[in-house]
Each structure stands twice: as C-alpha cells, then as structure tokens.
Specification:
Elements (H helix, E strand, L loop, with lengths): L1 H26 L6 H16 L16 H17 L4 H10 L7 H26 L2 H16 L2 H10 L9 H5 L13 E7 L16 H7 L3 E7 L7 H10 L27 H7 L3 E6 L8 H6 L5 E3 L1 H4 L16 H18 L4 E6 L12 H7 L7 H21 L6 E7 L9 H5 L7 E5 L5 E8 L3 H9 L7 E2 L2 E2 L9 H5 L1 H10 L2 H6 L21
Helix pairs in contact: 1-2, 1-5, 3-5, 3-6, 9-16, 14-16
Length: about 525
C-alpha cells in the first residue's frame, strides 16, 4: 500500500514538473531537454519529501491556486503561439472581430493545452488534499502566481492610463497630416509582406532574403525600422504605416462594449483619406477574409473604393480548391493584383493606388505557394525559412512582371513587412539578433541608396508622402517623421524606444483621438499646446 501511495504521489508531481518545464522553455531560450530534467527533478523531490503521502490527513479542499494556474496556462499558450504576448492585440481582435481567421492549427493546440491544464489542476489538487504542508503554504503560492503573472502585470500597466498625471504627451506630438495638390501625381503600390522582417537578411538565414536584397539594389532601402508597442500585428502595422500612429485598441472608450467596432480609427486621417481627396482611385486586395480584425472596415472607412478579400476574390480562382487555412496563396493573389492594376490603369483618368498583403510567411510555418514548391523542391510543412524565401521570390517576381508590362511608369512601389515575425521554427535565432522591419521604396525618380536611421513603422506614413511628392508640414504626419529628410527627427531618435513604449502603455489621449466618434467623451475641438516641442 505504501509503495502504491508513493507511486501515486510521484505521478502528479512529475506532471507538475512537466508543466513547469514547458513554461520555462516557452518563456526563455532554455533547450528542450530542460523539460524532462525538471519533470524528473520534481518527481524525485516528491519522493524525497513524501509529498502527497497523507501527512496531516486527507482534507477535501479546493486550492486557491486553481485560477492563478489557469491564468498562467493562458499566458503560456499565448506566448507559445505568438512569441511576445501583446495585450493590445488581444483587446483589439476581440472588439474588431476574429471570425474567418485561419488559425485552425492554433485551435487544435488550444484543445491540447486545455486538456493539459485540466490534468495539471487535478494533479495539484490531489497533492494539496493529501499533504498538510502544501495546504499551509498554498495560499502564498496562489498569491505569488497572481503577482508574477505577466498578463496581470500588463493589465495593471494599461490601467495606469486612467490615473497617470499626463496622459496626453504622445497626443501632443501628433501632427494632423495636410498635403497639397500636385500637377502630375504618381500612382502607388504598397506590398505588405506578412512577417517578412529585414532580420531574415542576416547571414544566419543563408539566402532566404536574397530576392528582396536584389530588389533593394534599385531601391531606397531603409535600415533601423524597429517595432514599438501597438504595432506588432497586421492591422496595427497597416495603421501605423498609413496613419502614422500605433493602434491603441478602443478598449473602454468604445461605448458599445459587446458589439463589433463599426469603424476603425475614425478619428484620424490616413493615407487613403488624403489620396482620396486628391482624386485617387484606391483598391485593397488581401488573400484572407476582409472581415477578420476589421480590415474591411478600416479600408472602406478611409478612402478605398474597392476592398477585396477572400470572399470577393475566390470566384475568380481557376481552381476553387487552391486555398489555404487563411485564404488565397500568394501566386494567385498576385495574379489578381496584376489584373486589378491593369484595370485601374486602363479605366482611370487620374492616379490610382493599390494596397496588397501577402500570406506566404505567416507564422508559425507559412503557406508557400505551389509555384514556390515547383521551384524550391519539397517542403516539410514546418520550415519557416522555406516560406520566407518563397514570399521574397514572389514579391520580386511581381515587381519585375509589373515593370516588364509597363505598369510601373510614374509609380511608387513600397515594400514593407507589416510587423516582425511571431513565434516560428527559427525563433531563438531571430530574438538573438537586432530585429528590424523591411522597408524599401522603388520608382518615381528615387535614387537608389541606403538610409540608416532609428525609426518605427509610424515613420513610413510621412516618408511615403514625401516619396510621392506630397510632403506634409515639416515632413511630419501623425507621430511619424519622414526618413528621407535627415533634419526631421523621429520619436525614437529623440526619446528612445523605452520611453515611447512606456508612454503607449500609460496614456489615453491618443487613444481617444483614434476612436473619436465611438467614445462617450469627445475630445475638444481645440488642439492642446505642443509643450514647446522642438522638431
């Protein structure tokens, strides 16, 4: 009987050790063999201390730590899915809508996580009920789990916006964008390359980035575009680069908390609004559903005439079955993009603009197109470098095809990663390097060169305006500064990344500006003083 009891106590302790080991390797860069080591150590320690052996008698008690353990399980799941847990992304997607997502694989993982957490909770409860020593210290364990949970720490930091002494510092740096008509406006193509950060150009990743590097020989290539808070997911990257501001979620300023957002950042003027006023015909094409994360509402509400996602484009597919979890493969999407550019070029008397976003390099493994598989050989369904190389090659082939067909005359082409990559198979290598977003400009008379400046994705907005011949006042728009003008200093150059990130967690005035019209408390019409800001 005693031998059986020891064995029974060893099993739940080992299960808890497995959970702790998995948490450690997920949140740190410890090697995989840390997991079995921690599990064996936990099992051995339980035998040594006779944990769960009935010391102090059996008591049918529910541990205080069950909820804190669940919260830790949620955090570890998010960290395993995305690498860095961004609460802003969580809040935004819950309000903007997560239907029609392509995360089938993550839903399966969520099921496995849930079953694992049930097992861990059962193991912990079994031990607490059978060991008075653990029962005595268990409330302290619950408190430590709560205090140390990064999810709750993040919520606490965001709550500071309600009580901070100065919640408008960032908002006072915001510059309302104004541009003026020009006689011969250029066309515009923006190619967002999903998660294809410039970091992939490091020697560590071999020839993965070579196709973009070759495109860069004829482009203005920007080095040093970092990622700040609230710009680390697709919609945040698009809004950052087209509106000049991080995407601070609506949160409690939305006066209809349980309804989807009717508009996305209606309080600011973005690139589409400005170009629409100048007579541009604008189209957006994306392989995923435009309903996911409010993409359709953003583009429809900011000057775009045609907004097309999976539902709008799938009828044009030659093979209706040639789709992935998220939507169209990029070779198909790019073919349809060429068709749209030809249509706009033929039908438009004035200038036009097309925005497009790829899917090939989407975490965790990507969705390489069939044309890439024919070129690169067999794919193991896990190697993200294969998918990144595919994405870079398809982008280069699209630009060259447009050029060959004469569709890039008087056209500015923008290539940019929408955000840094989330957790992928080379995550440890990525986070060990200085990480930068891809950003390059081609055409419209720009002289090829490299520009190295400390910047963030909000600086893309005024830089694109400058490159198009629509310079904003002081070459600033939103929170961004044109990277083509050395005297126009970026926020990161002036204040550093840590201060900007801290302010984004603490402030609320910029959030109210973004969501003006959806908030119960409206901002004043009069702009606040600029605090003697020297640009």
């Amino acid at each position: 009987m005693l031998a059986r009891l020891k064995l029974a106590a060893w099993l739940p302790a080992t299960a808890l050790g497995l959970g702790l080991g998995y948490t450690l390797i997920t949140l740190t860069r410890l090697p995989w063999w840390t997991l079995p080591c921690v599990a064996v150590l936990a099992g051995a320690l339980s035998l040594k201390l006779r944990a769960g052996s009935g010391i102090g008698g059996y008591r049918r008690a529910w541990p205080w730590s069950l909820l804190p353990l669940c919260l830790w399980g949620l955090y570890v799941y998010l960290a395993d899915s995305f690498g860095n847990v961004d609460l802003g992304a969580v809040f935004f997607h819950l309000q903007a809508g997560i239907t029609d997502h392509g995360g089938t694989e993550r839903l399966l993982a969520a099921g496995v996580y849930t079953l694992s957490m049930v097992g861990l909770l059962c193991a912990f409860t079994w031990l607490v009920r059978r060991d008075v020593r653990l029962r005595r210290v268990e409330p302290l364990i619950a408190l430590a789990l709560l205090v140390g949970n990064p999810l709750l720490l993040g919520l606490g930091e965001r709550s500071a916006a309600v009580v901070t002494d100065d919640g408008g510092w960032l908002d006072r740096h915001y510059q309302h964008p104004v541009i003026h008509k020009q006689d011969d406006p250029p066309n515009l193509i923006i190619l967002y390359l999903e998660s294809l950060e410039r970091t992939y150009g490091a020697e560590t990743f071999g020839d993965t980035y070579d196709d973009l590097r070759e495109l860069g020989e004829d482009a203005v290539v920007f080095e040093g575009v970092e990622q700040i808070n609230n710009t680390g997911w697709t919609m945040a990257g698009m809004i950052g680069s087209q509106c000049g501001t991080p995407l601070m979620p609506a949160g409690l300023v939305h006066d209809r908390q349980f309804e989807p957002l009717a508009e996305v950042v209606p309080g600011v003027k973005c690139l589409g609004d400005l170009l629409d006023e100048q007579g541009y015909r604008l189209s957006y094409l994306g392989g995923a559903s435009k309903s996911f994360a409010g993409k359709g509402r953003f583009y429809e509400g900011h000057g775009f005439d045609n907004v097309m996602g999976l539902d709008e484009l799938k009828d044009d597919l030659d093979d209706p079955d040639y789709v992935n979890d998220w939507g169209l493969y990029d070779d198909t999407l790019y073919d349809l993009t060429v068709d749209e550019i030809k249509r706009l070029d033929a039908e438009s008397d004035g200038p036009w603009g097309v925005v497009n976003i790829s899917l090939s390099a989407h975490a965790p493994a990507g969705f390489p197109a069939q044309s890439c598989r024919e070129r690169q050989g067999e794919w193991d369904n896990q190697d993200i470098l294969y998918s990144v190389k595919c994405s870079a090659w398809l982008a280069r082939r699209l630009v060259e095809r447009l050029d060959d067909e004469g569709l890039l005359d008087d056209t500015l082409v923008v290539l940019a990663s929408d955000h840094l990559s989330m957790r992928v198979s080379v995550w440890d290598e990525l986070v060990g390097l200085p990480r930068e977003n891809t950003f390059m400009l081609l055409g419209n008379g720009l002289e090829p060169r490299r520009i190295s400046r400390r910047a963030s994705i909000v600086d893309l907005f005024p830089t694109i305006l400058d490159a198009m011949g629509y310079p904003a006042e002081d070459h600033r728009a939103g929170l961004g500064a044109s990277l083509l003008k050395p005297d126009s200093h970026t926020l990161l150059e002036r204040y550093g990344k840590e201060k900007i990130n801290a302010r984004l967690l603490e402030e609320s005035e910029l959030q109210h500006r973004l969501w003006e019209g959806l908030a119960p408390q409206r901002r004043e019409d009069q702009e606040p003083p600029k605090d003697n800001i020297d640009y």
